[in-house]
Amino acid sequence: MNPIPFAEFLERFPCILGEGAIIERLRRNGGLDLDPYLVNSAFIYEGEKRAALEAIYRQYWT
């Protein structure tokens, strides 16, 4: 794999999938308890937690 400059990378691949540190954002700012085994995976089943996930993901989309 040959590295390329970031600007060239963005030109070639306008859509980039990244991790975004969702768990860290929830841990530090969410005020919501993370499951010790599932971390944030089960958040989709509870309204308030699901809304917190949605808010974070929407920030990355816009």
Structural description of this entry:
It is a single chain. The protein has 62 residues and is an all-alpha fold. It has a domain of 42 residues. 50% of the residues lie in helices and 0% in strands. Helix 2 crosses helix 3.
Give the secondary structure arrangement, pairings included:
Blueprint: H1 6-12, H2 22-30, H3 47-61
Helix pairs in contact: 2-3
User: Which geometry do the CA atoms define?
Assistant: elongated
The low-confidence runs, each spanning 5 or more residues with pLDDT under 50, are none
Helix/strand/pairing class, anyone?
mainly alpha
Number-wise, the strands total 0
Gap between N and C termini, in Å? 30 Å
H/E series: HHH
Major sheet description: none
| Secondary structure: helix percent | 40-55%
Q: Give the C-alpha Rg.
A: 15 Å
Strand content: under 5%
Number of helices: 3
Estimate the mean pLDDT confidence.
Answer: 85
Provide the descriptors you would attach to this structure in a database record.
62 residues, mainly alpha
Short description:
By secondary structure, this protein is mostly helical.
